[in-house]
Amino acid sequence: MFKVKRETSDGKLALILLLPSTLLILLLIGYPMLSNFYISFFEQPINPEFPAEFVGFENYIETLTNIDFYKSLGITLLYTLLVVVGSTGLGLYVAILFNRPFRFRKVARSLIILSYVTPSISLIFVWKYMFNSGYGIINYIGGDILHLFNQPPLWFDDPTSAFILVVLFAIWRYFPYAFIAFLAILQTISPTLYEAAEMDGANVWQKFKAVTLPAIMPVMLTVITLRTIWMFYMFEDVYLLTNKVNVLGVYLYETAFAFNDLGKASAISVILFLVISTLIIAIRKKVNLNASS
């Protein structure tokens, strides 16, 4: 009897303690999501003094029948795929290298994460300066020193080169996140496992496949999932670097604030939410979380 009363009292205390954070989540996340879903069924003017007009599923139909939306979706999926694979693979490779003892290892680790902790606007300014067609160091080295091209390329004005550069920028900018996560889990792997694998005659790839990969798999899934979400909604990096790569974040922003179509922008964001949710569920089903066991 006493035990039942104690469990009931603990349950009430837990609910009381969770109540502030629950209300905060509902206020900051739940209400904006519901409000966005509500607006997607209206032709919503920016001026709040003008009344909104209910249009039903018209915003969704216009979005799903617009070829520009699918072009932007394709660019976003390719951008997300390349950046997630690139930043995760590079982060893992550097983490394996830095998991070995060498001089100035702590200093080197600190330098690795500089690109991740530096504000985006500073990095974007540096990249635009480097690839400037008139005085950028890339055109100077490629044209004046190596003579690779006669006319300096307009790197951020050509859609293809601009897309390659925004992908490279994102891989370089965000691989330290994967590096930190992988390095932390690599340091928990016992060296005796590698020694046992060596005694069995395993080569480098076999040791990675049999020892390292199962141990880092849960962390890898988390890194891939979070990076996929973040890159799928990427806006500021691409928008500030160039106007030639129309990812969905840019497409949504221009729909809302360049064409003042808030209802359609809300419908696009709902569709994006469904797409990214489907992708995340597919990733979780594809990767075996129990591989480490």
Describe this structure in words.
- The protein is an all-alpha fold.
- It is built from 13 helices and 2 strands, in the order αββαααααααααααα.
- The chain has a two-stranded antiparallel sheet.
- The radius of gyration is 25 Å and the shape is flat.
- The two termini are 40 Å apart.
- It is found in: Cell membrane.
- The chain crosses the membrane at residues 12-34, 77-98, 110-130, 162-189, 210-233, 265-283.
What's the quick description here?
With 293 residues, this protein is an all-alpha fold.
The helix content is over 70%
Our estimate of the beta-strand percent is: under 5%
Number of strands: 2
Strands ordered across the widest β-sheet = 1-2
- Compute the CA-based radius of gyration: 25 Å
Unreliable stretches, pLDDT < 50, 5 or more residues? Answer: none
Structural class: mainly alpha
Straight-line N-to-C gap: 40 Å
Round the mean pLDDT to the nearest integer and report it: 87
- Sketch the major β-sheet: 2 strands, antiparallel
Shape: flat
Instruction: Report the order of strands and helices.
Output: HEEHHHHHHHHHHHH
- Tally of alpha and pi helices: 13
Task: Please outline the helices and strands.
Elements: H1 2-39, E1 42-43, E2 53-54, H2 58-64, H3 67-98, H4 105-112, H5 114-117, H6 120-130, H7 137-145, H8 159-186, H9 191-199, H10 204-232, H11 236-241, H12 248-258, H13 262-286
Antiparallel strand pairs: 1-2
Helix pairs in contact: 2-13, 3-8, 3-10, 8-10, 9-10, 10-13, 12-13
